[in-house]
Design brief:
The protein has one domain: Alpha-Beta Complex (Spore Coat Polysaccharide Biosynthesis Protein SpsA, Chain A). The protein contains six helices and eleven strands. The two termini are about 35 Å apart.
Length: about 230
């Protein structure tokens, strides 16, 4: 792998979170949530450096203590409406000398603690082997979106009345981006400001790795799963 196509790894971990304050450094299994993603990225052996980008001094200090490279994010990139792709595209310009439109950028969200190094490698290998421009890891939706309803003036209304009563077996499998792994070429990010665009590759995540920490109860669930894993060993 030459220096020009060495992938850049960015873990975006801003300090603010309305639903779960300080969630990126909440303790799980004896270490900060962020550290689980740093460790998986390092064990994957794909990256020269693992960058943690944050506007928060404590998060950057924890990142450095876990052998990641801290990147101080500007306040303009710390807004809760700023997307991950926008953050990564801007950070790449700050981190690298020169520009290679084909250089892969790998984003790993710190809220997926059970993502393994093998999953990062497998996703990256699929991306390279298929000469991808972008890739997102996915998980199946629990319920078909065709069954969704809205509440209007206290009354239920199907969002899609024509397909609402369709049996599950007759509906296509719907998926969601799960945040485990997102990859894109730098040129793709600059053009689309998104990891999703034309011909984005789908990478099916292992079901046991798709736990996402978004609320305190998610962390309790992760602790329960972790304790069960340890009990089985």
């Amino acid at each position: 792998m030459t220096a020009s196509n060495q992938p850049i790894c960015i873990i975006p971990a801003r300090g603010g979170s309305k639903r779960f304050p300080r969630k990126n450094i909440a303790p799980l299994g004896g270490k900060p949530l962020l550290a689980w993603t740093i460790d998986a990225a390092k064990v994957s052996e794909l990256f020269d450096k693992v960058y943690v980008s944050s506007d928060d001094a404590e998060i950057l200090d924890i990142a450095e203590r876990h052998r990641a490279t801290p990147h101080k994010r500007s306040a303009t990139l710390a807004d809760d409406r700023t997307g991950v792709a926008e953050v990564c595209a801007t950070i790449c310009d700050e981190l690298t000398n020169g520009h290679d439109a084909n250089q892969p950028v790998v984003a790993l969200l710190p809220t997926s603690p059970f993502r393994s190094a093998a999953t990062i490698r497998n996703a990256y290998e699929q991306f390279i082997n298929r000469n991808g421009q972008s890739l997102q890891s996915i998980a199946p939706l629990e319920h078909p979106p065709e069954w969704a309803m809205n509440v209007v003036d206290g009354n239920l209304q199907p969002r899609e009345p024509k397909v609402y009563d369709t049996p599950r077996k007759e509906l296509p499998q719907s998926v969601r981006g799960d945040g485990l792994v997102m990859i894109a070429r730098r040129g793709f990010l600059e053009t689309h400001r998104s990891f999703l665009g034309p011909d984005t590759l789908a990478f099916a995540s292992p079901p046991n790795e798709t736990v996402d920490i978004d609320e305190p109860r998610d962390l309790l669930w992760a602790e329960f799963l972790l304790s069960n894993q340890e009990a089985e060993l």
